[in-house]
Amino acid sequence: MTRSSFAMLIPPAGLLLLCGFAQAKHKHIPALSSIPAARQTAAGENDNNSSLTLPTNQVLVVALPANPTTGYQWEVKTVDSGVLKQLGDVTYQPDSNLVGSGGTSTLVFLAAGKGKTELNLIYARSWEKNTPPAKTFTLQIEVKEKKTDDAPKP
């Protein structure tokens, strides 16, 4: 292998290392498969600017299209964490194994306490402080106490 061909291998290898370190910093939440489907509520791109009512202890799973290779990431801008608490960090699942392909970012929340809050998410580059986000996602959330007579009858 010539010196110039070896030098051409370094940038892709470095990129792979950086991607690995970037993914390693995320805290993982308990597997959603361990939470009964009846305790999960899904929201996605089509639910933007809508309202949801959740019982306490319900898990809200927000899945949105993303492509972190562009530098953009979904993040929580505002939410009352006493009403809706984020569980873990944003996770990302690519649609394919191709470098630079898009995929889905998932944010998981727990309906922690009775009340109302607005969940505001932004899709932005963290280093672009004076630039509006590329996308926004908003949900009006109301969390109500779960009534005991709402429980399934035997």
Q: Overview of this structure, please?
A:
There is one protein chain. The N and C termini lie far apart (about 70 Å). The strands form two sheets. Strands 1, 3, 5, 6 and 7 form a five-stranded mixed β-sheet that branches. This protein has a four-stranded mixed β-sheet with strand order 2-9-8-4, with no helix packed on it. The chain has a single domain, classed as Immunoglobulin-like (Sandwich). It is mostly beta strands and about 150 residues long. Helix content is about 15%, strand content about 40%. The model is unreliable at about 1-30 and about 150-154 (pLDDT under 50).
Write the layout of secondary structure elements.
Elements: H1 3-24, E1 40-44, E2 50-55, E3 59-66, E4 73-78, E5 84-86, E6 91-94, E7 103-111, E8 115-124, E9 135-144
Task: Produce a short descriptive summary.
The protein has 154 residues and is mainly beta.
* Low-confidence runs: 1-28, 150-154
CATH architecture: Sandwich
Strand content: 35-45%
- Which bin fits the share of residues in helices? 10-25%
N-to-C span? 72 Å
Query: How many structural domains can be distinguished in the coordinates?
Result: 1
Structural class: mainly beta
Tally of separate helices: 1
Determine Rg (CA atoms, Å): 19 Å
CATH class assignment? Mainly Beta
The geometry reads as: globular
